[in-house]
Write a structure and sequence with these properties.
heterodimer, A: about 425 residues, alpha/beta, Rossmann fold, four-stranded parallel sheet, 17 helices, B: mainly alpha, two-stranded antiparallel ribbon, transport (chain A), Leu-bd (chain A)
């Protein structure tokens, strides 16, 4: 009996020591044995497949290669899964990954509903969540987490860049075609605020059910309002169908502008320039922006199966690259042991990558970089495949994002 | 008061026209469904997928072979119809004697598989398909609205196609054989008609109708793997309201419900995707066999 209790105590003490030892910043011996696992969780089969999907995974692999982390003795493995745009499916996969498969980092996660679920789980398990394709500002607002970095874009920055900029060019009366669910309402509300703040008016709005096929009726109502701009507060195939039918009805030909609140270059590709020309949209990355973005695109292009990287994919690349730099700095074992500490270190280190240039991560998890307003080229202006955007305006990193004071993130002490 | 009325009319009239355009698609699709159900007693859930394949075949013909819209309008239905023949011969023909539920399950499974294959091959955000030269260009001014030429063509094509189908089934000898075979296959076979082959061709014809609608839809909607599934549920409601298997019923209700939906989009847009199902519930309560069905 006594013997038993002693061995029990001994093993208990030994167990208690393990995490303590792992937490030590021992860069020598322990590091050689570390292996990290990155899980890319996104839509592999539905409406967001092109803007996330396998292309995100390829970009994550590129980041691992570019980071040269293998030479530093840390072995990184990538797994991927399809959350089917369902929060419960995503949550189940995330729990399995972390509890059973030993995943340390979850990357990407389009669809704000799923993103928020993952945000909670990763925090509970003290791992790392690098969000790129989820758009909700909640992630850096009330639900902000010490384990999350929100990299690429959010609804606030889209609304500010597209809404604010267009009013400045004289497009001061708006009509919204809005997807009738939280994301659409959010985008419409945010954009309306910027339009009105810049001295513009909102003449009306019409809310359509998600995944509608025919938008001609809404476009007609928008035209009857005589607004100068039709704002599309929807996403994916809804947006594509809207734009396609607006071109068909000659909406833009008669001088009305169309502002797409959320569009990725892959959507432009699927529309074709004939239908998409003249559209205005916001992205924080474009493959043909500068020498560095072109260099990145050339490196990764071969593994994308004909697709091109959008800002969402670039965000997966850049966030993983920065994470791996932090791992190299902290030591693999330490990074594996404590997700929150790793994210804190990521925030302390300035970021620099080919996609977004130099930047920083704010206390609330918001990654800061410049934001670009693009206009889609006319077919005759396009010089080759995927030559789609011309730059209209750049919003500097300091102005583009929601100020910390407005986000109500509990991590930030006032 | 009168000004108010005129304003409402100005707002409503264009929506009536647009409603007719959408109704044209409902009519064409529900027509194919009605033909297949009426003659074969199979609820063809793969109809949406076949509609989608029609649009994709048009895209492939254009981008891989260089065949334009007009030939595709005939070729795509033939190709997809041939595919329908294979489906019917190998699988669906085995279900005629079983409960409807089996046909529904099989075709639903087929729809999922076909959609999945296209998603793997072509991604999900869709492909561009431009309207033909003849029908592009500036929209026609109807006085109260601008209507793209292509949409006018869609309505015309749908009306002609629906009429032709109705005439073939109700007024020709072939149609008479078909209807007779539905009533009593053994007897018709005894008169020397090859009933199994007729069934195969009927299924192929229904499928070809879906593909025809798919080609018509390609320049308007995004050509993507889920384009059929978003339409097919509504189309089933149309068929149920019209009366299962009734050709005339499905065409008339197709256009009618397109209209109702169009008007809902002006007066209460949030309900536009639900209104058809509300009508379906009411019709089923009042007339379980549908508006034009025989109980």
């Amino acid at each position: 009996m006594v013997q038993d209790r002693r061995s029990l105590l001994m093993s208990g003490a030994a167990l208690a020591l393990v995490p303590a030892l792992a937490g030590l910043p021992s860069r020598g011996r322990a590091q050689g044995a570390t292996s990290l696992k990155i899980g890319v969780l996104n839509d592999q089969s539905g409406v967001y497949r092109e803007v996330s999907g396998p292309t995100s995974t390829a970009c994550v692999r590129q980041a691992i290669q570019d980071s040269g982390i293998a030479a530093k003795g840390v072995n990184v493995e990538v797994v991927q899964a399809d959350h089917q745009n369902k929060a419960d499916v995503g949550a189940t996969i995330a729990r399995q990954w972390i509890d059973r498969d030993g995943v340390d980092v979850i990357v990407d996660v389009p669809n704000s509903a799923v993103a928020l679920a993952i945000n909670g789980i990763v925090r509970e398990k003290n791992k790392v969540y690098l969000n790129s394709t989820g758009g909700t500002t909640e992630l850096t607002g009330k639900q902000c987490s010490p384990n999350t970095v929100h990299w690429t874009y959010d609804t606030y920055m889209l609304a500010k860049s597209t809404g604010g900029a267009m009013v400045k060019t004289g497009a001061d009366s708006w009509f919204f075609i809005t997807a009738d669910y939280a994301f659409g309402h959010d985008l419409e509300r945010n954009t309306s605020a910027f339009v009105q703040a810049a001295g513009g008016k909102v003449l009306g709005t019409v809310r359509h059910p998600l995944q509608s096929t025919d938008f001609s009726s809404y476009l007609l109502q928008a035209q009857q309002s005589r607004a100068k701009v039709i704002g599309l507060a929807n996403a994916g195939t809804d947006t594509i169908n809207c734009v396609k039918q607006a071109a068909e009805f000659g909406v833009t030909r008669r001088g009305t502008k169309i502002a797409v609140m959320l569009m990725f270059i892959n959507d432009v590709h699927s529309l074709g320039l004939t239908a998409a020309q003249g559209l205005v949209c916001t992205e924080s990355f474009y493959w043909d922006l500068n020498d560095r973005t072109r260099a990145f695109t050339n490196r990764v292009k071969g593994s994308l199966g004909g697709n091109y990287p959008a800002m969402s994919h670039a965000g997966c690349y850049a966030s993983v690259l920065h994470y791996l730099k932090t791992v190299a700095d902290l030591g693999g074992a330490a990074a594996k042991a404590d997700g929150a500490a790793t994210v804190a270190r990521m925030k302390a280190m300035p970021t620099d990558d080919d996609c977004f240039g130099a930047g920083t991560i704010r206390e609330d998890g918001r990654k800061l970089h410049p934001v670009y307003l693009f206009e889609v080229k006319k077919p005759e202006e396009s010089k080759g495949a995927w030559d789609y955007y011309k730059l209209v305006q750049t919003t500097p990193a300091e102005e583009a994002w929601r100020p910390v004071s407005e986000g109500a993130c509990p991590l930030v002490r006032a | 008061m009168i000004e108010d009325l005129i304003f409402q009319l100005e707002l409503g009239l264009p929506q009536v026209v647009l409603g007719l355009v959408n109704g044209a698609f409902y009519a064409l699709l529900s027509l194919g469904l009605a033909v297949i159900f009426g003659m074969l007693n199979v609820i063809n859930f793969a109809h949406g997928a076949q509609f989608m394949v029609g649009a994709f075949v048009a895209w492939m013909l254009l981008n891989w072979v260089g065949i334009g819209y007009w030939p595709a309008l005939i070729l795509a239905p033939l190709i997809v119809g041939a595919f329908g023949v294979v489906l019917e011969r190998t699988m669906i023909s085995r279900l005629y004697k079983l409960d409807h539920l089996y046909g529904l399950l099989l075709t639903f499974g087929l729809a999922l598989i076909i959609e999945g294959l296209f998603r793997n091959g072509f991604g999900s955000s869709g492909l561009p398909y431009a309207p033909p030269e003849l029908l592009s260009g500036p929209p026609v001014d109807l006085g109260f609205m601008f209507l793209p030429k292509y949409r006018l063509w869609v309505v015309a094509a749908a009306v002609v196609m629906s009429l032709a189908t109705w005439i073939i089934i109700e007024k020709t000898r072939l149609g008479a054989y078909l209807r007779a075979a539905t009533e009593n296959a053994a007897l018709v076979q005894a008169f020397g008609v090859n009933v199994p082959r007729m069934m195969t061709l009927t299924y192929a014809a229904g499928v070809a109708l879906a593909a025809f609608a798919g080609v018509l839809a390609a320049p308007i909607y995004s050509v993507n793997p889920q384009m059929g599934s978003s339409l097919i549920i509504t189309v089933f409601a149309v068929v149920v309201i019209g009366g299962m298997g009734s050709i005339l019923g499905s065409v008339l209700t197709g256009f009618g419900l397109g209209l109702v939906e169009g008007l809902t989009k002006v007066f209460y847009p949030e309900a536009s995707s639900t209104v058809i199902f509300v009508i379906m519930a009411i019709v089923l309560l009042a007339r379980p066999a549908g508006l034009f069905g025989r109980a």
